[in-house]
Amino acid sequence: MSALFRLTNRAVALQRSLMANQAAVVRAINTSPKKDETITAPTSLTTEDFANPSPKNWQSYGFDYKDQVEDRKATKSTFFFTVTLCLVWGTFYWAYLPDTQFRDWAQREGFLELRRREQAGVDLVSPNYVDPDSITLPSDEDLGDTEIII
């Protein structure tokens, strides 16, 4: 990804330098008497200009408003920690976490109990799971005309 970013930056810089050279070659004819409206050829760019760019158009990323180098360092380290460590490694850790609530264990125990009951010939779920004597049902007079859906 960073190689693609560097390649794009180089392509943009090359395109700008080509546009600057074309502007120097192509001159428009202007008949205006005003001196400010005429087209002037841009100054040629040297290797020193590319090596030491002027920070006059620098915009801060919000980490340091006075020092460009510190702002870029803080930006890169913040994005490294948030994207690489938190998102990538955090997702990896979360995906391979052990089963802390024992869901797999409970399901496995349920299947083992069902297999044991099938082999023993017993009902899978006992009809008397709750003792019928402990349940109090309302009488027919208490229910009245209440619709009962089973």
UniProtKB/TrEMBL annotation:
It is a single-pass membrane protein. Complex I is composed of 45 different subunits. Interacts with BCAP31. It comes from the Eukaryota. Belongs to the complex I NDUFB11 subunit family. It is found in: Mitochondrion inner membrane. Pfam families: ESSS. One of its GO terms (cellular component) is mitochondrial inner membrane. Keywords: Electron transport, Membrane, Mitochondrion, Mitochondrion inner membrane, Respiratory chain, Transit peptide, Transmembrane, Transmembrane helix, Transport. This is NADH dehydrogenase [ubiquinone] 1 beta subcomplex subunit 11, mitochondrial. Accessory subunit of the mitochondrial membrane respiratory chain NADH dehydrogenase (Complex I), that is believed not to be involved in catalysis. Complex I functions in the transfer of electrons from NADH to the respiratory chain. The immediate electron acceptor for the enzyme is believed to be ubiquinone. The chain crosses the membrane at residues 78-96. The keyword Transport applies. The keyword Cell cycle does not apply.
